Amino acid sequence: MTWLFFGMLPLLAEASTTDTIAERARRIRAEHPDVAALVDGSEPRRNRAGHVYFPGGFGDSEHVQVLLLDAVLHSDKAIDVRVSMAHAVAEPQAWALIEKQAVALRVALLEGHKGTDDASVLIAAANDPSPDVSAAAVRLLGYSKAPPSADVSATLVTALSSQTGEVRRLAARSLGWRNDASAFDALVNLLTDQRPGVREAAVRALGRIDAKRASELETLRTLESDGHPGTVRAVKAVLNRAN
Amino acid sequence: MRHSHFGCWMLLVGAAGAVGCDEKSEDDTARIEPTDPNPLTGTDTGTSDTGRDSAEPEPDDALVIELTVGSISPGNTDLAEFPGLAGVPNVDDDDENGQADWEQAGSAVGDNDYALATVLTHGRDIQLSLSGTGLRIYHGEALILGDGAGAEAVLSGIDEAGLRVEFEDFLDQGILAVNDPERGETIALALTASPLFFNHHLQSSEEVMAMRVAEFGYNNTPMMDGYRDALGDAFFTLRSGRYDYDVWVQDEFEFAYATAPDAHLDIIFDTHRDGQGWPGEGLDDFPEDQYEGPDWLITNWGPRNATSLDYGGNFEVSPPVTVDGVDYPYGRVYYGGYGSYTPMRATQNAVEGMQVQEPFMPDSTWLCVGHIDEFTTTIPDSSAPKGFRLVFADTHSAWELLDGLDPSMAIPRYSGGMWEGHNMDTISDMVSDAALRALNDEVQEILDEQKEVFVRELGLSEEDIIYMPSLFEEVAGCGSAVAALIPGMANLIVADVEGTPTAFIPDPFLRSDVNDQDSDPMIARVRELFPDSIGTVFLDDWSVYHMGLGEVHCGTNVKRRAANAWWEDSGHLISQEVTR
């Protein structure tokens, strides 16, 4: 089954389908009503950003995690509550499971792949038709501990041409964070992007990859007088680093 | 023969007469008279014969206006100069009838929001002339000038007149010309209503409040206990369940005040946060439940379409500063925003309109919540050149400290998953995370730039700044916006513990033994950074606040004492709109 290649959590190894997760959850609810009460009875609160959260969290015991995932996938709770529960799912989920969910849940479940050493789910998600999902994927690729690879590079470089500015911005940032020298020329093209945040991210990425080479770019130097303060700030940082 | 000091009086006013008696009246025969354009030239006013000598008055017989803060005479008019007689706007509801007292034109029982002046006439006829709007002047119980009356009146047949001046709104202004035609002398007394002042951290605290949480699996008991142990009765808490478990009491409202020598008005800027986003939700009713009543005004400005930038955590005030030669004795307001994403224009206009705490706007929009209190604050420091220090988040100093620690040191508070921790088991998980460093490098660039905004707008220098070790992370649900990774220690409150200003700071929990603050190198570092003149208490805000994208300051509010004589030190900041 393909999803097993994408780092499925061991505790759910037998849960190859959402039906299996539901069945396991039913069993846990029957055998461990106290655990079920903990998850099903948890009252969400609003964090300071106005988003739903669960103070104290849920913990990462196997039973709790199965019930959480079941609630995310199958419950009739409000979508923001399910999103919040998805954030509490401890282990990264397979793309085959994630891609069937609503956009907000896809974005939330991708967070489980933050900082992991398997980039395959994020690579798959980068091609998601939803810009929100794609943006989340390319952002999280910046955190990936996966070693440099042609697949990751190609995914991010392709995302530099996205029609969505936020995807371009985050792809540039991730390439910079990954110090991906192969993307230098592609990043140069973004120095004239119409979106200021993209220009800023491109400047930063180029500076991270090769500050001296970046500082010699006439296009980058002209951005010293850019109308966007973040871009100007980034250019100054690159020039300082190069010197 | 001279009149009694407390005789009845009679007024001749522009449109209608007015009459009344002072206390200790010896004569109740005062009358309402029609307007006399020249009451001193023969018309019988009933009390026109004052029995005065026809000789020139002695110099010590001069017209005098006595204010609470001192006396004014034709040869000594300093206190008459703008802002002159200071009052507070009569916008509260002292008789609690649901109507602002100004609307009741002096009839509100218990109304105490007047500026007081006593005119010593020495029995001569004194002409009064009022210019300006939003003003009323009463003699005794009678309205004699201003809104609802005329612009001119005459004090006649009395030796002194106790006047009460009422203002309709903040910064309403006028001139009361007090003319003694017999001596050919006039005093032009400026009248000015107090602006609204917001509190800063150098004002001593009166009471501190936070919402109590005690739910299955989580609570904020350690933080409540920490407050109670330090502050005793000056701390009060309410059960958060009463307010939909909304704990963000800093965001809901800001304390403010208007003041004058004769009156004081406590004010709450009840932000448009409206609880958790809707009227009546969460803490929306907290200000009314706790404070509504006489001598309080609960107010806000503009429409209800608030964003997070309109919340109280994004609204702060610096201590007193001098910037480019301009003194701001009550500091400057600052709120975060950038471009078109700012606090609502109506609020900005209102604050700017108060003139005395000129606002400025650093950028806080790079934060998930977007509040200015997430990366900076001020603390009192009697040893500092300006009497305070700016506390400013700084990632360099955090990395410096972390890089010096044993990488294998466990940090159990960080090790839980979402809503519980940060998935970091050891210091190594933090310091070896290249993406986290890259992110914080970018954050630091923003911090550097924003620090320059504070330096410029508050007239600061490097010695005025304490760099608070801080790290930020991207958090679920906020895209690439950030929040505190290490509990944001700049998000502190200042309150007095037995007369000593004390900073209540989020516990950073950078230690293996969560119960032993003395073993925490970050706490030790912060104590080194902070001046000896301020106490420090580190509060456990982890589960309810830190994991909810807020910290100690976000979950607390502080009412402060207003030590303020703005009429003495802030006239230069207020434009004089009414002149003779």
The class by helix and strand makeup of chain A works out as mainly alpha
Strand order of the largest sheet of chain A: 1-2
Q: How many E-type strands of chain B?
A: 34
CATH superfamily of the largest domain in chain B: L-arginine/glycine Amidinotransferase, Chain A
Explain the overall architecture.
The complex is a heterodimer of chains A (243) and B (580). With 243 residues, chain A is mostly helical. Chain A has a domain at 6-112. Chain A has 14 helices and two strands; from the N terminus they run ααββαααααααααααα. Chain A has helices spanning 18-31, 33-40, 62-74, 79-87, 95-98, 103-110, 120-126, 131-141, 150-159, 165-177, 184-188, 196-215, 218-222, 229-242, and strands at residues 45-46, 52-53. Chain A has a two-stranded antiparallel ribbon. In chain A, α4 (79-87) runs parallel beside α6 (103-110), α7 packs antiparallel against α8 (131-141) and α12 runs parallel beside α14. Chain A is elongated. Residues 1-15 of chain A have low confidence and may be disordered. With 580 residues, chain B is an alpha+beta fold. Chain B folds into two domains: 8-193, no CATH class; 198-569, 5-stranded Propeller (L-arginine/glycine Amidinotransferase, Chain A). In chain B, 15% of the residues lie in helices and 29% in strands. The interface between A and B is large, with 43 and 45 residues.
Topology:
The complex is a heterodimer of chains A (243) and B (580).
Chain A: H1 18-31, H2 33-40, E1 45-46, E2 52-53, H3 62-74, H4 79-87, H5 95-98, H6 103-110, H7 120-126, H8 131-141, H9 150-159, H10 165-177, H11 184-188, H12 196-215, H13 218-222, H14 229-242
Antiparallel strand pairs in A: 1-2
Chain B: E1 8-13, E2 18-21, E3 64-67, E4 70-72, E5 85-87, E6 115-120, E7 126-132, E8 135-139, E9 142-146, E10 152-156, E11 160-167, E12 173-180, E13 185-193, E14 197-198, E15 205-212, E16 214-215, E17 218-219, H1 221-231, E18 235-239, H2 249-252, E19 253-260, E20 263-270, H3 274-277, H4 286-291, E21 296-299, E22 316-317, E23 321-323, E24 326-328, E25 333-334, H5 345-354, E26 376-380, E27 388-394, H6 395-403, H7 427-431, H8 434-458, E28 465-469, E29 472-474, E30 482-484, E31 493-497, E32 500-506, H9 521-529, E33 535-539, E34 556-560, H10 566-569
Parallel strand pairs in B: 5-13, 15-18, 20-21, 27-28, 32-33
Antiparallel strand pairs in B: 1-2, 1-10, 3-4, 3-6, 6-11, 7-10, 7-12, 8-9, 8-11, 12-13, 14-19, 15-34, 16-17, 19-20, 22-25, 23-24, 26-27, 29-30, 31-32
